[in-house]
Amino acid sequence: MKDSGSERRKTKRLDILEVFSFYICVPSLGLTRHKVDDVSEMGIGFTLDTLGEIKLANGQSCELQFYINQSLFFPLKIQVVRAFEEGEKQRIGAVFLETKSKGYQTFLTLVNLVDQLSDVGQLSH
Q1: pLDDT-based confidence at 2, cuts 50/70/90?
Q2: Is 43 exposed, middle or buried (0-12, 13-18, 19+ CB in 10 A)?
Q3: Cα-based angle 67, 70, 40 (whole degrees, multiple of 5)
Q4: Torsions phi, psi of 49, nearest 5?
Q5: Nearest-5° angle of CA 23, CA 32, CA 73?
Q6: Phi, psi (5° rounding) for residue 117?
Q7: Of all residues in the chain, what percent carry a pLDDT higher than 70?
Q8: What is the Cα gyration radius of the chain?
Q9: Domains of the chain, with CATH numbers?
Q10: Using CA atoms, how far apart are residues 103 and 89, in angstroms rounded to an integer?
């Protein structure tokens, strides 16, 4: 999640490249797919297409499903630390809870892979 202020995160944030098709679903809000904007070891930024209806609030905890493709996901638990509206969208910044879970450990492996790919990977045109 881009912010006009100085960087406040304690860990490196990775913007999600368009070549990845990562997205999340918040089951408590329905089965809609939502765009992942960035990830770090401690948190995630994503955009909810709220259409003015479904929303998350600062301090709210919830489960989300982190999809790495059309059908494969792993569960994560988050707590919203920042939520603001942009038209019919809501930008969310959240930290991870339950960092000992298998889902979170898998997420860390994915973050490390994305980091390595951004340093070494090349796109063919």
Answers
A1: very low
A2: buried
A3: 25
A4: -85, 90
A5: 40
A6: -65, -35
A7: 79
A8: 14
A9: 14-119 (2.40.10.430)
A10: 27
